[in-house]
Structure formats: C-alpha cells, structure tokens
Write a structure and sequence with these properties.
The protein is of the alpha/beta class. Helix 1 crosses helix 2 (56-67). It contains 6 helices and 5 strands, in the order H-E-H-E-H-E-H-E-H-E-H. It has a 5-stranded parallel beta sheet with strand order 2-1-3-4-5, with helices on both faces. Helices cover 40% and strands 14% of the residues.
C-alpha cells in the first residue's frame, strides 16, 4: 500500500478507537423509547492509557483523546531505551491507575499475553479495555477467569479476536 493508503488505515483505526471510547463512556446516556435521565460524564477526569503511544496509530489515538480533554498517559517500550524491566514495571503501575487502556502494539514474543491475570486483576474495577491491535496481547483464559468471578470488572471493546469467528463456551457461559 502507498503512504497515502496506509495513513488512511491508521486514521481509520484511531477514529474507530475514539468511537469505541465514546460508545463505552456514553452507552447508557440517552436512548430512544422510554426517556430516562442519563449520566453525563466529565471527560477531563478520565485517565486514558495508550500502550504503544509512539506508533502510527497510538500517536493518533493520543492526540484525539487529548483533543477531547482526557488525561492521556502514554506508554511505549521505545521510551525505555532497551530497559525492558523498567518498561514492564512502568506498565504495571500505569495499568493500576487507568480508567481506559487502549492497546496499539504489534503481537510478538515480548507482547504476547501482555495483559495477563496479574495485570488484569490489578486494574481498577470498571476499567475499560480497548483492543484494536491483536487479540493475543490479552491472555484469553486469564480474562475469562477474571470475568467468571466478577463479570462487571471491565468493559471491553475489541475488534480483534483470538479465533474468528469468535465463539467460546466459557465466554458465553459467564
């Protein structure tokens, strides 16, 4: 693909990530039918963690979220100049404080199962995870184990799956 075409793809993924954030944040605000007063959220108090923030998509997502007034927190392993332990420790701490986590990293041996049981369990109750990157960044079994115990621990928005089409008895049997 040409640079022009690839930039369109990066922009489209960043826009879709923004849409998923807005949908998750305002999903129960207003619906047609029987009117009920919705909850209005103040975006300025939201901690939005972008994992892979130096990349083509992550940097675009960061800018879009800043434009909405969110407190954008960036994490990218490249910022740690080869100190993988420092990068891992920083991610552990950032995940504990994040209201939203948006994943924008490639899937490789270093990133597979990046969000494992320990990290998922340490996240805030009600945190939201957006994954438009690769399903394997999140350990499926660990995620489902946590959701089986507490099915409202997270809000999830994925456009990637471990196996497509996605069907898993454990997921639908929560």
């Amino acid at each position: 693909p040409s640079t022009k075409t690839s930039n369109l793809i990066y922009d489209a993924v960043a826009e879709f990530t923004t849409y998923m954030f807005m949908k998750m944040n305002y999903d129960n605000t207003y619906h047609f039918g029987t009117w009920q007063k919705g909850i209005r959220h103040n975006l300025s108090g939201i901690n939005f963690l972008v994992v892979g923030s130096n990349g083509r998509i992550g940097s675009r997502v960061s800018r879009k979220m800043e434009e909405l007034g969110l407190n954008v927190v960036r994490h990218d392993v490249a910022n740690y100049y080869g100190d993988e332990e420092a990068a891992e420790d920083a991610l552990d701490e950032l995940l504990k404080e994040a209201d939203y986590v948006s994943l924008h990293v490639p899937l490789n041996d270093n990133t597979r199962d990046m969000l494992n049981f320990k990290r998922l369990d340490s996240m805030k109750h009600g945190a939201c995870i957006i994954n438009t990157s690769r399903a394997g960044l999140i350990n499926e079994r660990d995620l489902l184990d946590i959701l089986r115990v507490n099915d409202n621990k997270f809000k999830l928005a994925f456009d990637v799956w471990w196996k497509e089409p996605y069907y898993h008895e454990r997921a639908f049997g929560l």
